[in-house]
Specification:
It is built from 15 helices and 2 strands. By secondary structure, it is mostly helical. The protein folds into 2 domains: 150 residues, Four Helix Bundle (Hemerythrin (Met), subunit A) (Up-down Bundle), CATH 1.20.120.160; 188 residues, Hypothetical protein af1432, CATH 1.10.3210.10. It has a two-stranded antiparallel sheet. α6 packs antiparallel against α7. The protein starts with a strand and ends with a helix.
Length: 366
């Protein structure tokens, strides 16, 4: 009987792998609840959208943890669910059952990889082939019968090759001109002073900057690392206004809404940081237009603003306000960001984020 392995996953820390399984189970329960809701209360595209996002978060977590064979199956399932969202694959209760069973089978493979460092290849291949066949079949009336075939039997066995992950240096040094270095040093001091006043660790901005640079390195057309560095240090400077509001909750809320503009204005008072200022001003905007302060959408938002926002989200979930909360779920943070794919962040940048986190995990293990 043929088996496959995911060596990079096996080499991860036990705590992280346990965390992954907990996140997987949570997402699986969310998906089951949505499918049950469709069966009990009726179909809606909003429910399908939530189903897709839970599945996408599950796939993102598996991707970060080097479970590429499982990611491959989940991606095929994701294409089918996305087809339902697009209206060119008709939802049917058998397809709902298929989604549950495929996720269940992937979960069993995950457990085998966790406990035994290997899992049965036959299950993997039948899921891949069956989902491919269903997705490619144009006659939607045949989809339920094709789903039943997948549900009925898993038998074929083939070999799978384990791809070695390339190793690369995590960070390249950011090179500043003497004038830029003087400003960066000043920005760094600003962040060191303000973060503790806001209840954060003084190292928060450094962590955010490093993750920004890692994500940026995964992107084909990168944002200037120099400008991104300034934005990472200065993005929260406008929050200093909250310190003046004392117990006035309305004033605090107004200060929070305005803080990106205030931070951008401070940056623009220094020559040569216009791009960094644009990033700071837009780092609370969202891909779908539901952010602030202007509610701009999609391509109107600088790429660096999304990179900064993903880094801030991850660091603040994992380390919390005081940094004494470390060991919070890194995968919960990954899941939160993947859940925002297409809503808060562009999907291709979420994939770049996932790639950066994978490299962090490799470096941490070594």
């Amino acid at each position: 009987m043929s088996h496959f392995a995911c060596k990079e996953f096996s080499a991860l820390e036990k705590e992280l792998k346990t965390d992954l399984i907990e996140c997987f189970d949570e997402a699986q329960q969310e998906m089951e609840a949505i499918i049950n809701s469709i069966e009990d209360e009726g179909f809606s595209f909003a429910k399908l959208d939530n189903l897709f996002r839970s599945l996408h978060s599950m796939k993102g977590n598996c991707s970060v943890c080097f479970l590429d064979p499982l990611v491959d199956v989940l991606h095929r399932l994701e294409e089918i669910v996305d087809g339902m969202r697009g209206g060119y694959i008709a939802y049917h209760y058998t397809l709902g059952e298929l989604i549950n069973v495929v996720v269940e089978q992937v979960g069993l493979l995950l457990q085998d990889l966790y406990q035994h460092h290997g899992a049965e290849h036959a299950t993997l291949v039948v899921l891949q082939k069956g989902l491919d066949e269903l997705y490619a079949y144009e006659d939607t009336q045949q989809h339920p019968s094709l789903a039943k075939k997948i549900l009925a039997k898993f038998s074929d066995e083939t070999d799978v090759e384990d791809e070695a992950q390339p190793t690369q240096p995590l960070l390249s040094e950011v090179k500043y001109t003497p004038e830029q270095q003087a400003d960066i040093d000043e920005f760094f001091k600003f962040s060191q002073k303000l973060n503790p006043l806001l209840g954060y660790s003084s190292e928060r901005s450094e962590r955010i900057l490093k993750l920004c640079l890692l994500i940026n390195a995964e992107i084909a057309e990168q944002t200037s690392p120099v400008q991104l560095s300034a934005a990472a240090y200065m993005h929260n400077m406008g929050m200093a206004m909250i310190l003046k509001c004392k117990d006035d909750s309305a004033a605090k809320q107004q200060a929070k809404q305005n803080h990106p503009k205030v931070g951008a204005k401070l940056l623009r008072s220094h020559k040569g940081w216009e791009e960094a200022a644009d990033i700071v001003e837009a780092h609370k905007e969202r891909f779908d237009g539901s952010g602030y302060p202007e509610g701009i959408v999609g391509g109107m938002i600088p790429q660096g603003a999304f990179v900064l926002s993903m880094a801030v989200t991850f660091i603040d979930i994992v380390w919390g306000k005081t940094a004494s909360e470390y060991n919070k779920s890194a995968l919960q943070a990954v899941q939160s960001i993947n859940f925002e794919s297409g809503k808060g962040f562009p999907p291709h940048l979420v994939e770049c984020f996932n790639g950066a986190i994978r490299k962090v995990l490799v470096a941490k293990r070594k």
